[in-house]
Design a protein that fits this description.
Beta-Lactamase; eight-stranded mixed β-sheet; 26 helices; Enzyme I, Chain A, domain 2; alpha/beta; eight-stranded parallel β-sheet; Glucose Oxidase, domain 1; about 15% strand
């Protein structure tokens, strides 16, 4: 291969590859011709094609240049050797001297003793690695970027052609398990609670590309331009056609529209079209390349944006191929998919959709946010869902118990039908007390606030009749958008939040990124322990322009209103002082430029770093309010990663250590007349919330869906009975007080425990 290989040469080679794969004869014979053609056109001594088989094993399927005896004999596990390394990481490898690489594995049956250099790329189809394409040369020679990109384009075409000819049938990649006639339980992670009973509908977003190679790039560019215009119109129609529902997820669709207009994405597709691919093939190649790069980043939030990219590419491919995205559903459909984008979900009739099951997925992915707004139960991370669920299988989706039951018996269906009826009655009961105050039986008033992060969460404020927003996570738009929102964009968002609150207080938490979150402003090298790394206030104090822009937008958005600003991850009072100085500078700037001041200003801090517990005197002298963030505080107290499932049940919030610590903080704040609240997950669990009341907390912030259950338990309890029991429990040496406290509550007829 040489640098003289041009775009025209690539187009001609792709055309010949298409003709070979579309020809007659056995698949093996056509693959043999393909590898010979690639070796000839790329001026390589060897070209080999490895195909993924069951059990994550790569089998040598065809070769030109290596020993033919090795075909179907040589096998490498994913991660084994250079070929296995390419498959494991789904990224190319180009080596002038392959033998010197520590991952090199010598297989004598291949006869590769004489070949030194190696370039290999993954063959990706529908977002999955289905094989590896390799070329080798006798001389030691480095490969340039153009050569790597050329082989990637070739591999993409071969992958699609192999899928079309079913070189390896899909069922070979899965092992049959169990008796298909018996019901099967599959576990997952609940992204939205609830129970759904229905039949499986398989969501198949991947569009099969019929034509891969084009001889007329200009015509393909024109097709791309028309398809992009149609894509933008579809998104506009989704927003306009959702009526009032769009208020719940309109900001997500706006972000989606920004992705569709991204000039970098569009220009990369245009460049690939110029190399000789059709518009469809170019969209697929750019999408696969982007997907592979993002998957290399060990960050869950950034990976969640893959769902939006999948959605975008699938919709554009559907338009280019002349297909439609909307599918007809039976009246009781459980949608099953690997993953799904927000607009793909909205394409389905939500009145008939009873649940969503995904092999992938996470709580802040946009489709989960939309499903929550539509109140659709969601179970994610269900391993083997696509392999074990067939279309029209009867399914019970129990997101409350984080499981699905396939082919349930009549007894199970009757049991879950009763559970659905009970949940409906329970929701009706919570709705009946919606407008009643959160007051205990002996007259103790409790303030209930919601946590929010998207505009759609504002609907929860009205639906739950909460007292305000105790925590607005301002980083969510930062994480969702491809570029950093400027002051104008942030002002527009914060103004909508303040207006949507209709006079109820809103506490804005400043940017909390880094660690397990990535924003355009904070991409840095990997950290060994990101939860305790360069994140939150540490990041924004080091990059004060970020903090100043945020505060500037908040101040302007709350002119004449109440402004409450909270700084996250404060570890010492010096950090709080530094952050407040920046706030004061921005307030002075706003007034100096003729702006109106908020009618009242409160500046506070999250308490989530244990070091602040020994600085309480200094802290209460400075902060207007303190909010205890139990999520991070728990993991720092116990040195236990809250994302580690092995530790999930080892440490309990209802322990003497945690409750005693919270009690002491409340006592110190109350003495100093500083407002104190709890805004972590602990506040939204009814039994935990009752314990918090018993140690003196009177202000809780939680998800909107938790307001009803917590309001119910508060109204059914007499604090004069609960408080002395909990205070006595704090003297215990037990690591958890949960079961003893639960038994106490049940004995006294307290609901929701």
């Amino acid at each position: 291969m040489s640098g003289s290989f041009s775009a025209g040469d690539l187009r001609r080679m792709l055309s010949r590859l298409r003709d070979v794969m579309a020809g007659v004869g056995a698949v093996q014979g056509r693959l043999d011709k393909v590898v010979a053609l690639i070796a000839q056109d790329l001026r390589a001594d060897v070209c080999s094609c490895y195909v993924m088989r069951a059990g994550e094993v790569l089998e040598l399927f065809a070769t030109f240049g290596l020993s033919q005896k090795a075909v179907h004999l040589t096998r490498l596990r994913v991660g084994e050797g250079l070929v296995g390394e390419i498959a494991a990481h789904a990224r190319p490898l180009a080596l002038a001297d392959a033998w010197s690489h520590p991952q090199f594995v010598y297989r004598p049956e291949t006869g590769e003793d004489f070949f030194r250099s190696l370039m290999g790329v993954p063959m990706i189809q529908a977002g999955r690695v289905i094989g590896v394409l390799v070329v080798q040369t006798k001389e030691e020679r480095p490969f340039n970027d153009w050569e790597v990109e050329t082989l990637e384009t070739v591999a993409m075409v071969i992958a699609e052609l192999m899928a079309a000819t079913q070189v390896v049938k899909r069922e070979e990649l899965f092992q049959s398990e169990g008796n298909a006639l018996l019901h099967v339980r599959l576990a997952g992670a609940a992204l939205h609670p609830g129970v759904g009973i229905g039949v499986a509908v398989m969501h198949k977003p991947h569009v099969r590309i019929g034509r891969l190679v084009s001889d007329d790039p200009v015509a393909e560019q024109h097709r791309l331009h028309n398809a992009l215009n149609a894509l933008r119109k579809e998104v506009d129609d989704l927003i306009d056609g959702s009526h009032g529902d769009a208020e719940a997820y309109g900001d997500i669709l706006e972000v989606y529209r920004m992705f569709a207009d991204d000039r970098g994405w569009i220009s990369r597709i245009s460049e690939v079209i110029s190399s000789g691919l059709t518009a469809e093939a170019a969209v697929q190649k750019v999408h696969d390349d982007t997907r592979v790069r993002i998957m290399q980043v060990n960050d869950p939030i950034l990976r969640e944006r893959l769902q939006d990219l999948d959605d975008l590419a699938n919709r554009l491919l559907s338009i280019l191929s002349g297909g439609g995205m909307r599918a007809e559903l039976p009246d009781n459909a459980i949608l099953v998919c690997r993953s799904i984008g927000p607009t793909e979900l909205l394409d389905y009739d939500r009145r008939k959709l009873k649940g969503l099951v995904m092999e992938e997925g996470s709580p802040t992915m946009h489709a989960a946010v939309v499903a929550k707004a539509l109140d659709i139960p969601v179970l994610a991370q269900v391993q083997g869902a696509l392999a074990r669920i067939d279309a029209f299988d009867l399914i019970v989706l129990d997101a409350n118990a984080e499981q699905i039951i396939l082919r349930p018996s009549e007894e199970i269906i009757e049991l879950y039908t009763a559970a659905v009826d009970a949940r409906t009655k329970q929701k009706a009961m919570y709705a009946a007390i919606r407008d009643l105050p959160a007051v205990t039986k002996d007259g103790i008033k409790v303030s209930l606030h919601i946590n929010a992060g998207f505009l759609l969460d504002m609907q929860g404020l009205a639906d739950s009749n909460a007292d305000g927003i105790g925590l607005y996570r301002t980083e969510m738009p930062f994480l969702a958008m491809p570029t950093l929102p400027d002051v104008k964009a942030q002002y527009a968002l914060y103004k909508q939040v303040v207006d949507g609150a209709k006079g109820k207080p809103v506490t804005f938490r400043t940017l909390d990124v880094g660690g397990d979150k990535i924003a355009a402003s904070s991409v840095s090298g990997p950290e060994d322990n990101p939860a305790m790394g360069w994140r939150s206030i540490r990041l924004t104090l080091d990059r004060p322009a970020l903090l100043r822009q945020q505060l500037r937008a908040m101040i302007k958005a709350t002119e004449g209103e109440t402004l409450r600003v909270m700084f996250p991850m404060i570890a010492n009072v010096a950090e709080f002082d530094a952050a407040r100085r920046i706030f004061n500078l921005e307030m002075e700037r706003h007034i100096r430029n003729g702006g109106r001041a908020p009618k009242s200003v409160k500046v506070g801090t999250m308490l989530e770093v244990p070091s602040l517990l020994w600085q309480m005197d200094a802290l209460v002298a400075r902060a207007d309010f303190i909010s205890i963030g139990t999520n991070d505080l728990m993991q720092f107290m116990y040195a236990a990663d809250r994302g580690n499932t092995r530790l999930a049940n080892r440490y309990d919030t209802l322990s003497p250590a945690v409750l005693s610590m919270i009690r002491d903080v409340i006592v110190r704040c109350t003495a100093a007349k500083v407002e104190v609240s709890v805004c972590g997950e602990m506040a939204g669990k009814p039994l935990d919330a009752l314990a918090l009341l018993a140690v003196g907390c009177r202000n809780l912030s939680m998800s909107a869906s938790a307001i009803g259950p917590v309001r119910s338990i508060i109204r059914s309890a007499a604090l004069a009975e609960v408080e002395p029991f909990v205070q006595d429990l704090l003297k215990s040496d037990d690591s958890s007080l949960r079961e003893r406290f639960r038994a106490f509550a049940r004995d006294r007829g307290i609901s929701g425990v």
